[in-house]
Amino acid sequence: MSGADEPVEIAWEAARATNHANWEERVPLHLDAYDIASLRDDPVRLSGVVETDMETMRAHLGPDGLAGLDVCHLQCHIGTDTVSLARAGAARVVGVDFSASALEAAAALARELGVAARWVETDVLAARAAVVRELGPETVFDVVYTSIGAISWLNDLDAWAAQVAALLTPGGLFYIRDGHPVLYALDEDAETLELRYRYFGDGRALAWDEDTTYVGDGRITHTRTYEWPHPLSEVVMALLGAGLVIERLDEGRTLPWRFSDRMIELPDGNFAWPDEDAWRVPCTFTVVARRPA
């Protein structure tokens, strides 16, 4: 992967358009590379991401978990995690993404699996207005869910957190598990744990050029993408600034994708740093927050 060591100035609209072209191209590659067959073969199977996330969410949802709850999945991509949330018991699931191709694939998957779901095409930074437009002004959710590899694509976490709060019903729960910003500051090609990229952000983006994605062997032509570094403090303060109450903050040592060639695959399909490095750096963070009743 080729990344800019120094951040670049780029308007959100231009960066968004570049990223959109890249993610549109990822859809057919991910339909081949994601383990969709296992969802087809086993009617109660959950994606590995949702299975992991449910272990944490259950402690904050009560004994019935998602049963009977309305769930909004932000940045849902091709819907494997969205349909898994429905299988985990959600009464209604709504997936939000900016890629029309991804939502078409998600809708087709849901139909094939017999899962009732709605899909809203929008930038996540305008999610509330789009949900109101598509589903009505009374629409709010018991749970808003985001996972994984999501918020580095956003330039403004205050705007993001405001959308989350506006989508939640009073007393509703927000859950996010994402790549840890310390992980994203590491040189993914180094033979040891070495910092290369910025941990702290200043509004500028990091530019990447890569003709592959995080899974599968396919190639894409829209290779340029832009991402923004967000320290963990920025994530937490954005959610607090939107009026949410933090109930949990965790840091994890495994990832559902191979960030570096040095990572080893675990029996459960996740990836970790080898040996003592697994104890030296976090791979993910998890925040559970709630909108006050």
Automatic annotation (TrEMBL):
SUPFAM superfamilies: S-adenosyl-L-methionine-dependent methyltransferases (SSF53335). InterPro entries: Methyltransf_12, SAM-dependent_MTases_sf. Coiled coil: none annotated. Residues 74-174 form the Methyltransferase type domain. Pfam families: Methyltransf_12. This is Methyltransferase type 12 domain-containing protein.
